[in-house]
Amino acid sequence: MEKIYDWMMKQAVSKNALWLLAFVSFIESSFFPLPPDPVLAIVVAKNRDKAVRYAVICSAASVLGGFLGYYIGYAFFELIGSKILAFYGQVENFNRLTVNLNKWAFLLICAKGLTPIPYKIVTIASGLAKIDLCTFAIASIITRGARFLLLSLICKSFGEKILNFIEKYKKLTLYLVVVSVIIGFLLLKLFM
To answer: Which residue among 12, 57, 140, 154 is least crowded, i.e. fewest CB within 10 A of its CB?
Structure first.
């Protein structure tokens, strides 16, 4: 895990920082298990003057990746989507989410996009439920934009403190990221 951290710290100040951030944000919204938040936090903490720019890039890539997740649910659920859900152990919860999305699509997409609940589950379910694409897009833009802008502004304000904490407690920080992913899946099981 420390190697991942060291690599991310190098990338945060490299010319590849934006590409890494955009790539992780994109794939997380459709199939990748880890959220882009740690990458965004490090990149912003290292480049505090570009916090809003990075939040916009992270949000835009996340929304675009959400469209890929939507398409997986819409057109390739049996072939790809069901395998992604099985990998995450979310097959049982998924049917409930799909039914609820048909009732409260905008609110559920917004609520779940702000939490540690894996966004890919929401995007695939939205496609399978054939949620109105405009509703999906607006809710995704609002929720992902708010989440990543808030994180960016926090990291901009406390950049050095955050970097010092991460540096001092590398293993703890990485474990906290893993625990937040696990909590997201547990919340999904509890509230779906």
So the answer is: 154
83-92, Cβ contacts within 8 angstroms, sequence gap of 24 or more = 84/31, 84/120, 84/124, 85/121, 85/124, 88/33, 88/118, 88/120, 88/121, 88/185, 89/185, 90/118, 90/121, 90/185, 90/188, 90/189
Confidence check: pLDDT of 59 > 60: yes
CA–CA distance, 10 with 32 (Å, rounded to integer): 22
- Torsion, Cα 179 184 185 187, to 10 degrees, reads 120
Query: Per-residue pLDDT for 92 more than 90?
Result: no
pLDDT of 57 > 90? The answer is: yes
**What pTM was estimated for this model as a whole?**
0.81
Summarize the confidence of residues 61-70 as an average pLDDT: 96
Measured CA to CA in angstroms, residue 15 lies from 69, 117, 149, 156 at distances of: 28, 31, 22, 20
**Does residue 32 come out as left (phi exceeding 0), alpha (psi in the -120 to 50 range) or beta?**
beta
Helix (H, G, I), strand (E, B) or coil at 50: helix
Q: The tokens of 72 are what?
A: 């997986």
Domain spans in the chain, listed from the N-terminal domain onward: 2-187
Task: Please give the single-letter amino acid code of residue 68.
Answer: L
